[in-house]
């Protein structure tokens, strides 16, 4: 930090001491005078621009010419003391009260004599209901344009969650409503409860941490964020952008059960399911055991009726099939086939016998022809066959020399002879 006019004052110049040009170069042997540090601090702070801030009044002390206000951030445990002069307070139409939400135009001021930093308030304005609604609406439009409220992003809730994560106020009626009504509908339901602040400056941080913790538990199938009704200011944490983005990033389905039917914080838009009340949330996250038993009974009755109709229809079909002649007297079909087989067998035998007879006649005829042409038949008519000793047949008399032994074959037997007088044919 360095003074615009230089680190030396008149006294330092008279003493002839060379002071460090910046605060970082000071040392125990060459320190700055306290006045120089204060002057540099004031010069530095005076250059800081004024800024508009928003917060909630937690302390308000009125004096004759000035009021002292402690302003706390609406989402964090950070406070700041403001000094508001009477001229600024007199411009207000209505006096400020503790708990009011305001925006203030402040400028830091450093009082050199005492080294005290104060926030001088140049203007202060209460934040009305219309301003809050307009701010929420602008945020709604921005998040809608990003697609955070799209129905395509919303996940279906499980039919019967094994364990339900519940984020709610400490010992609140909303917690009791959710747990009691859920147990009435499904007695075996289990909860993983996180009790947090559901309004005030700690609400957003605590709800976000609880959401992250439950989302990291694999046994938690659905997360319910529940709170009873309240004013718009009380429900503002559930329209906080950080919380909305945390819910959008969660992997576990989230149910919003904030306030009453008319309350619509932005959490309702980003949640996978909006319940109008905590009681409605209990009815929508678990089924009713009585209704489920009734459905099972109705399904069993319908199944039994369908089975009886099917069995009756199939029994009728069997009776109809059994009444047919082929099934009422199945031996008729066998007897008919046996008759067909006998008839075909007889026809086969008859055809074979006829063929055998025809072939026997044909063989007899051929045999007769063969016999008729046989040399034996010729011999039977009185002819004889003359053969030489070697068995060759004598066809010409000139071929036989006198004295040649001959064999003469007649119809019955043979005779031996000797050629005596061969006579050739003229």
UniProtKB/TrEMBL annotation:
Any idea where this protein resides? Cytoplasm
Question: Where's the Exonuclease VII large subunit C-terminal domain?
Answer: 148-369
- Which residue intervals define the domain OB-fold nucleic acid binding in the entry? 37-125
Has UniProt tagged this entry with the keyword Nuclease? yes
Pfam families with a match to the protein in the record: Exonuc_VII_L, tRNA_anti_2
EC numbers listed for it are 3.1.11.6
Looking up InterPro entries in the UniProt record yields: Exonuc_VII_L (IPR003753), Exonuc_VII_lsu_C (IPR020579), OB-fold_nuc-bd_dom (IPR025824)
Catalytic activity, reaction form: Exonucleolytic cleavage in either 5'- to 3'- or 3'- to 5'-direction to yield nucleoside 5'-phosphates
Q: Which domain of life is it from?
A: Bacteria
Q: Which UniProt keywords apply?
A: Cytoplasm, Exonuclease, Hydrolase, Nuclease
The record, for CDD domains, names: ExoVII_LU_OBF
Q: Which residues form the signal peptide?
A: none
Q: What binding partners and quaternary form does the record give?
A: Heterooligomer composed of large and small subunits.
Family designation: Belongs to the XseA family.
Query: What's its job?
Result: Bidirectionally degrades single-stranded DNA into large acid-insoluble oligonucleotides, which are then degraded further into small acid-soluble oligonucleotides.
Q: What is this protein called?
A: Exodeoxyribonuclease 7 large subunit
UniProt lists the gene as xseA
């Amino acid at each position: 930090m360095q003074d615009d006019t230089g680190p030396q004052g008149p006294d330092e110049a008279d003493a002839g001491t060379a002071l460090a040009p910046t605060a970082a170069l000071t040392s125990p042997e060459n320190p700055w005078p306290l006045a120089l540090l204060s002057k540099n601090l004031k010069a530095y702070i005076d250059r800081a621009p004024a800024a508009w801030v928003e917060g909630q009044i937690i302390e308000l002390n009125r004096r004759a010419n000035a009021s002292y206000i402690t302003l706390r951030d609406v989402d964090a445990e950070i406070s700041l003391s403001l000094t508001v002069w009477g001229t600024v307070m007199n411009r207000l139409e209505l006096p400020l009260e503790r708990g009011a939400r305001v925006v203030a135009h402040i400028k830091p001021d450093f009082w050199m004599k005492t080294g005290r930093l104060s926030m001088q308030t140049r203007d202060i304005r209460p934040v009305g209901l219309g301003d809050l609604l307009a701010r929420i609406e602008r945020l709604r439009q921005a998040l809608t344009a990003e697609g955070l409220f799209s129905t395509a992003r919303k996940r279906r809730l499980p039919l019967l969650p094994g364990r339900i994560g519940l984020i709610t106020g400490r010992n609140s009626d909303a917690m009791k409503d959710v747990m009691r009504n859920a147990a009435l509908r499904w007695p075996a339901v289990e909860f993983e409860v996180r009790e947090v602040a559901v309004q005030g400056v700690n609400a957003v941080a605590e709800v976000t941490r609880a959401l992250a913790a439950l989302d990291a538990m694999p046994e938690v199938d659905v997360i319910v964020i529940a709170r009873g009704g309240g004013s718009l200011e009380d429900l503002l944490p559930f329209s906080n952008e950080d919380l909305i983005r945390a819910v959008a990033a969660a992997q576990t389905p989230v149910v919003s059960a904030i306030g009453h039917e008319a309350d619509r914080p932005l959490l309702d838009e980003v949640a996978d399911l909006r319940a109008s009340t905590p009681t409605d949330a209990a009815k929508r996250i678990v089924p009713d055991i009585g209704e489920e038993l009734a459905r099972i009974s109705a399904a069993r009755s319908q199944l039994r009726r369908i089975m009886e109709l099917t069995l009756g229809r199939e029994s009728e079909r069997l009776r109809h099939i059994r009444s047919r002649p082929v099934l009422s007297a199945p031996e008729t079909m066998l007897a008919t086939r046996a008759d067909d087989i006998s008839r075909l067998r007889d026809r086969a035998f008859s055809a074979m016998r006829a063929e055998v007879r025809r072939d026997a006649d044909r063989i007899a005829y051929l045999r007769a022809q063969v016999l008729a042409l046989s040399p034996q038949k010729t011999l039977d008519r009185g002819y004889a066959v003359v053969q030489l000793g070697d068995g060759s047949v004598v066809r010409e008399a000139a071929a036989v020399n006198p004295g040649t032994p001959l064999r003469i074959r007649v119809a019955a037997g043979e005779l031996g002879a000797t050629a005596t007088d061969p006579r050739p044919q003229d």
